[in-house]
Each structure stands twice: as C-alpha cells, then as structure tokens.
Specification:
- The chain is mainly alpha-helical.
- About 80% of the residues lie in helices and about 0% in strands.
- The chain has three helices and no strands.
- Helix 1 packs antiparallel against helix 3.
- The relative contact order is 0.15.
C-alpha cells in the first residue's frame, strides 16, 4: 500500500470515528435533557433526570465509549503524522 493510500485510510478511519463521537455526544445531551427548546442549556429538572439509575448507567457507558473513540482518533492521527514526518525526513536526506 502506498503512503498516499495509507494516509487516506487513516484519515477516513478517523473521520468515521469522529462521526460516531458526534452521535454519541448527542445521545449524552439527550439524556441530560438538552434540546433546542432549552436553548441547548441544561434544563431545570436535571436532578430528576439524573436520579434515574438507568440514565446514570447509560451516561457512564456513553462516556466510556467517547473516551475510547477519542483515544482511537488520537492514535490514528498520530500514525498519520508519523507517516508524514517520516516521508518529509526522507525527502531532506
């Protein structure tokens, strides 16, 4: 696989994960009751929403996934950066 193909593959994987991250973040906002009607602010009944153990468990799972996705994207971008750096070093030898 050429470097160009590897860059593209890495960046496409990172983009897909970014979209997953975005979807998960909106699920978090929904569980917190954040909507256009609340002007994207935490609603006054947040304590009531968080008192539900199912909401807390779901938030915990969503945040765990968000952190995992964030690490994956970081690793993919670092790998892509390393490829670019290595390629640049080869050009200037």
């Amino acid at each position: 696989m050429s470097d160009s193909e590897r860059y593209k593959k890495l960046l496409l994987q990172a983009a897909d994960l970014h979209l997953r991250f975005h979807d998960q973040a909106w699920q978090v906002w929904a569980l917190l009751g954040v909507t256009p009607q609340t002007h994207y602010c935490i609603p006054g009944n947040i304590n009531e929403l968080l008192d539900k153990s199912s909401a807390r468990a779901e938030l915990k799972a969503l945040f765990q996934e968000l952190f995992a996705i964030d690490r994956q994207v970081s690793e993919l971008l670092q790998e892509c950066f390393n490829l670019v750096r290595d390629e640049s070093n080869q050009l200037f030898k």
